[in-house]
Every structure is written in C-alpha cells, then in structure tokens.
Write a structure and sequence with these properties.
Elements (H helix, E strand, L loop, with lengths): L8 H12 L6 H58 L1
Keywords: Coiled coil
C-alpha cells in the first residue's frame, strides 16, 4: 500500500477560483501557502490511515490476549477439578 499523499483534483479547482479573488500582489504567496496547506492535509490523511491501522491491530491483539487468558483460566480450572477428586 502506498502511503504517499495524493492530490485532490476538486481542491485544485477550488484553488484556481480562490486565486481569481486574490490581490495580484499576494497571489504567489497565497499559492505557495495553499499548496503547503494541501500537502499538510494530505500527510494528515496518511497519518490518520496509519493511526486507524494501528488502532485496529491493537484491538486485535487485545482480543487475542483475552482469548489466551480465557484458555489459561479454563485449563487451570480443569486441572483444579481433577485434583479435587
């Protein structure tokens, strides 16, 4: 899976519309800032996906651990039942 950010064509159209309303003296700075913010947003999306994947793995490990604990408790109880007889 490629975690690199991908550009959103719809956001590019919105940027072009925004640039039409910007004072020409600030257009370059605005374009640079907008581009930097888009890149930050794309990397935030990557981090969110990675975080979600990690949370899912943690949940799975917790469930496996609980199942392992249940097996240990069951075997302890079975061993205890046999010793009591």
């Amino acid at each position: 899976e490629d975690d690199s950010p991908q550009g959103d064509p719809e956001s590019n159209n919105a940027e072009e519309e925004d640039l039409d309303n910007v004072d020409p003296a600030f257009a370059l700075e605005y374009e640079d800032l907008s581009s930097a913010m888009d890149e930050i947003n794309q990397w935030m999306d990557v981090l969110e996906r990675m975080n979600n994947d990690l949370c899912n793995e943690i949940r799975q490990l917790i469930e496996e651990s609980k199942q392992g604990d249940d097996l240990v408790l069951d075997s302890d109880m079975s061993a205890g039942d046999g010793a009591a007889e």
